[in-house]
């Protein structure tokens, strides 16, 4: 029988980050992953490291996470492919300008000054290839992008170095609390843990249910596509107000296109199916913003599996039962948050710091379904 | 999406044409798609346009091909040539590009008859300019009438000899044929005529060897290892035979060590695959009709398992019969009654397969790169050394190696390195290919531009389809 301080269910970036911080604080940890680390969302996402246009509630977390990305090497001994290339959110029409400027004012009123307004000329200076109709946009210079696979790998290496017990291809099939101890059925093994952290991504609601918490979640499959390598023309990551687009050129010259168009999620088999009409919409948006992309070849498309909450904010905090904790439901923007959320969850779990003001807005209680 | 076809057949080789003929006989509305401009597939390429037949096509082939093409012409299917299929889905959707325009339509069933592709030949220097596959060399000869003089043919299997022979027949000088078959003396085409599957039933081995001799082609057998030499382009090769290395000068090398099922579409379509231990490749799991694990998707021909041109029409007909039965155009009894003759034909055409598979197994030394410097993935320029390092670091299979090294992430999506990667993984992890799995392949399996995707039209209306019916 295996006895640990904390069992983490789910080996995405959030599970890895929490494990890392817990281990650094001296806890005995086991990380349980049904497939391979980062396979469903954390290693296959767009790698956007973005505070720009975050839900206001998430801004404090995202800003803290951003400063960790800038020195991510100190945490995991690798830069994770992070580039502070800046991120831009552009307005293509009048409504876009109004919406973005309103957001800008709202942030200012709350005392945030990380987003910066650029007029049309300034945007063209940053992105000469953009459609000349573009009327301006918001920019965060310190945002950028990282390489998801490299990031997951760097975290995994660090866990190995810290001798954390990481079990891949080990699914948790049930757990329950008995006399202050969690009994966890993981693969063929029974594990005993004082505390459990649910980092189950698109499966988080199912795990929560076993833990006695009924939390609403939808598994969805956001799609991405990538081009053959082309000459470098774009540094910032581009988003568009009022459109579903995230567009970036990576250091190897390939262009990655996302934005939230959905395929069909099948979490039973852990796969997602692509949806051609969604990809077509995505291609249309690309051409609207960057007409010069017309003849560029798309060489591959894929979809990940991600958990979305009803208000698109993650569940972070305690469950109802003693020693139950949740960190899931990042609703397609959790990659950026992982270094910091893992840290504060670790501190909360070990009772070092409850981070009450930071975490209060994300308490699972806000959306708990009827008993 | 509105569906106008019962069945879409992809691939206009013998399997695909036979499937069309059979399906039309039972009243199915059928569309045939093929990337080439004419029907015939690899083996009968150009046969629908009699003016291009050359001296390299022998009489029997011509006759078999012409008979099939004529029967297909008489059947009532629609046909799109120059149609490059980049996706199929379990819902029966087919995405394809034609004349730069992308379309998507939906059918009740899809029969894939997309044939085989050449097995990778990852030896030192295989990616140098001047080196190409024998299949590529054959296409050049058949479609462009282009050919390189003084080339050296390296490898094994019927297609190697057939192509060398076709070059000679076309009046092109061939320098040498290097045979890497581990057990050279047992090559069946030397002794058996007309029974060999694949391209092998096109020629008479003895007759052909005589032709090589007559034209002064060096025939070097029992070659244990080959390395291609050159800085910017290939300038020669070194080969290991009877314990010593020797060299040949040449500016053109054609490589070939057999063919394997082309699994791009079945993988993108989500069909289950299994490792074929005798043919040393992935093949889709199918039942005796060619039905895959995905309900709407069927297979026929070499894409199912390499069985050769003679087996292809029976497989096409069997798949079409099952589709007709599933769509309730014929009863199971009628299906079985009609299938009997095809099954018999198929048994005859594949009787020698186990023996052939054993003889034509390429040696491990030509499947797994001997030197760490050899490229495994030519798109992303990933070496064998990098792949081994990723495996040693703990990557549990091809997909993780791919994520980590970018091996297989280029435009060909791992079609050229996929098998090598699976075998290297299985070897390093001391387990079976099935246990390490295959590269995941995703649409578009053929490059697709943003413009084409943005203009994608769904469901072709019957009257605006613009299908030319020959
Ligand atoms: C296509 C796509 C693009 C994205 N782009 C961005 C972006 O640009 N920027 C950004 O910030 N975010 C992005 N995201 C979101 C980001 O990837 C996720 O929010 C983040 O990775 C979530 O991490 P996680 O650890 O919570 O989940 P996951 O990475 O999904 O990890 C959860 C893990 O739990 C495991 N698990 C579930 N149930 C069990 C069980 N019973 N037993 C054992 N293991 C179990 C799963 O197998 C899975 O590996 C994107 C997501 C997708 C899909």
What percentage of the residues of chain B does DSSP assign to strands (E)? 15-25%
The CATH class designation of the largest domain in chain B is Alpha Beta
Helix content of chain B: 25-40%
Biggest interface reads: A-B, 28 and 29 residues
Annotated CATH topology of the largest domain in chain B: FAD/NAD(P)-binding domain
Q: Tell the overall outline of chain B.
A: globular
Question: What characteristic shape of chain A results from the CA principal axes?
Answer: globular
Care to count the β-strands of chain B? 23
Small molecules in complex: flavin-adenine dinucleotide
Query: CATH H level of the largest domain in chain B: which superfamily?
Result: FAD/NAD(P)-binding domain
Compute the CA-based radius of gyration of chain A.
Answer: 21 Å
Beta-strand proportion of chain A: 25-35%
Q: How far from one another are the termini of chain A?
A: 33 Å
Fraction of residues in helix of chain A: 25-40%
Question: What's the total number of strands of chain A?
Answer: 21
User: How many DSSP H or I helices of chain B?
Assistant: 15
Mean pLDDT of chain B: 87
Compile the SSE list and pairings:
The complex is a heterodimer of chains A (371) and B (470).
Chain A: E1 2-9, H1 13-24, E2 29-32, E3 48-49, H2 59-70, H3 72-76, E4 87-91, H4 94-109, E5 116-119, H5 120-126, E6 136-140, E7 144-145, H6 148-161, E8 165-167, E9 172-178, E10 181-186, E11 189-198, H7 204-210, E12 218-227, E13 237-240, E14 246-249, E15 255-258, E16 262-266, E17 271-273, H8 276-289, E18 297-303, E19 306-308, E20 315-318, E21 324-328, H9 338-349, H10 356-359
Parallel strand pairs in A: 1-2, 1-11, 2-8, 4-13, 11-21
Antiparallel strand pairs in A: 3-7, 4-6, 5-6, 9-10, 10-11, 12-15, 12-16, 12-18, 12-19, 13-14, 14-15, 16-17, 20-21
Helix pairs in contact in A: 1-6, 1-9, 2-9
Chain B: E1 5-10, H1 14-25, E2 30-33, H2 59-74, E3 78-80, E4 83-88, E5 93-98, E6 101-112, E7 116-118, E8 131-133, H3 134-144, E9 151-156, H4 158-169, E10 174-179, H5 205-214, E11 218-220, E12 225-230, E13 234-241, E14 244-249, E15 253-257, E16 259-261, H6 264-268, E17 273-276, E18 281-284, E19 297-299, H7 312-326, H8 332-349, H9 353-359, H10 364-367, E20 375-377, E21 382-383, H11 384-392, H12 398-405, H13 418-428, H14 433-436, E22 448-449, H15 450-454, E23 457-458
Parallel strand pairs in B: 1-2, 1-6, 2-3, 6-19, 6-23, 8-15, 9-10, 9-15, 10-11
Antiparallel strand pairs in B: 4-5, 5-6, 7-16, 12-13, 13-14, 17-18, 20-21
Helix pairs in contact in B: 1-2, 1-7, 3-4, 4-5, 7-8, 11-13
The complex binds flavin-adenine dinucleotide.
Flavin-adenine dinucleotide (FAD) binds at residues 9-15, 32-35, 38-42, 45-48, 171-172, 199-203, 207, 222, 224, 258, 304, 306, 328, 330, 332-336 of chain A.
